[in-house]
Structure formats: C-alpha cells, structure tokens
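Bit of a strange request maybe. I'm writing a small parser for structure token strings and I need a real example to test against, not something I typed by hand. Could someone generate the tokens for this chain?
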Amino acid sequence: MTPSSKRQEYRNLFKQNVQRRLLVDKIMRLIVIACVITAIIPLGSILAEVFRNGAAAISIEFLTQTPGAIGSGDGGIGPAIQGTLIIIGMASIIGVPIGVMSGIFLSEFGDNKLARSVRFFNDVFMEFPSIVLGIFAFLVIVLVLGHFSVWAGAFALSLIMFPIVARTTEESLKMVPVTYREAGMALGLKQWVVITRIVLVAAKSGLVTGVLLAVARIGGETAPLIMTILGSSIFFKSFEAPMDALPLRIWRLSLLPYDSAQLQGWGAALVLIIIILAINLGVRYFVLRKKSTSIFGRLINQGRQEKK
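Reply from user aminoacidic:
Good idea to test on real output. This should exercise your parser:
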C-alpha cells in the first residue's frame, strides 16, 4: 500500500470517527434536553397550581393575623410564618456547624477507618424517614421534659439537616485543587489556616448550595413537627411551649372539609414556597456576590498590612 493510499485510509477512518462522535453527541444532547423538560413540566405545573389556587388568599390580614374559628374563613397564618422562620433558624444553628465540621473532617482527614465508618453511617442517616427522627426527638426530649417544645422541633430538623450539609461539604472541598493546599503550606500557613482561609473560601459556593438544599428539605417537613412542637394558634411565647409552623398549618387546613380552609391551605403553601425562595435568593446574594478569585492575593496583602 502506497503512502498516499494510507493517508487516504486514515482520513476516511478519522472522518467516520468524527461523524460517529458527533452523532453520539447530538443523541446525548437530545436525551439531556428531554430529561430537563420532563423534570421542569411537573415542577412548573405544581408551582402554577399552587399560585393559581393560593394567590386569592394572600392579604395583609392573612399574613399577620392568628387563625380564626374553624370553617369561618377568618384569621390568617401569622403564627405559622413566625414559627417557620424560628424553627428553620434554630435548626440551622444546630445542624449547619455540625455538618460543615463533619464534612471538613471527611474531606481533609478522611483517609482512615474511622472516616470511612462515619461516611457510611452519614449516608445511611441521610436516608432515614423523617417520621423516625421525629419519634426519636419525641422520646429523647419531649418525654424527658414532659412537654412539647421548640427545642425538640429544632433538634429533629437538625438531624435531617446535618447529613446533607456534611455530604455536600465533603464533596465541595474535594473539588478544590490540591495545589491550593500545597500553595498555602508553601506560604508557611498552618493546616487549620489553609482549611479555613483558603479551602473553605474556594468551596464557598458548594457549601452554600448544600446549606440551602438542607434548608429547603426541612422547610417542608411536617411529621417531625407533629411529634415535637405540636402546633399552636397563637404567636411565639416561649421555647418551652408548642409553636405553629407552615407545614403543620397546611396539613391541618387540608384535613378540613371547608372551602375557606382549603383556600387558606393553598395560600399557606404559596407563602412557604415564597419564603424558601426568598431565603435561597437572599443567601446567594449576600454570601456569593463577592467572588473569591484572589484568595492568596488577599492573604498576602493582609500579611503585609499586619507587618506594617
């Protein structure tokens, strides 16, 4: 076979290979687009249905007043909104630090038998039904104290929250290039400084995403709250007393056979969606608006300022 014929054969093989790859690429693009559309359609229909049925219930009185008599259509969901914000905040205070520290341990010191065991049980714990965690909080806190309380609800939701935060934190830190750590060590920084000032800053976007996923998860949980905070028709009075929350209020309104109660239930669901959306947008804006592209530059400048 002559050199020219060999070159022609190589060209034909290369052309066939490129055409096959382009065909596979087009097929995979179509599959991905179809999957995205399949996921968006039910999500969009749910949001549209909630907005269509719940928008009519939204008013100042509905958002600020206490619930009225059953079936009267009067009153609002003010205590439920207040309770939801309180319980999410308390659960985050408990669950986020534990989850972040666990994720740091698994990512930075996770090449041992203990870390593998922690990782396994964390993954198993993340799949626990929420009602089981609610019963656990009921047995550990409610029965011991002798009354329902906000602490029990926050504890139950934090059990749901911290495995998600730990897992996302670990994966986010693993995506930070090892050269970042090596560069920090080369600057003479201690390991804890490298982790807190370089690695965590570089993985900030992933950490925030994990926290927001956990917040969205606990924001709609009902079963643990039934077993821990029980529910109430008045505004917050004490951490040692029952308290209302939007998931509980939606659940109770959905059980009533009155049209006015059903309308208020749809309105409460719409408010819950808006709250979760507002938390996501607000946290992303205030935390991620400053890009962390010059980590080492800021550290060097800070060191120079301290020397001066």
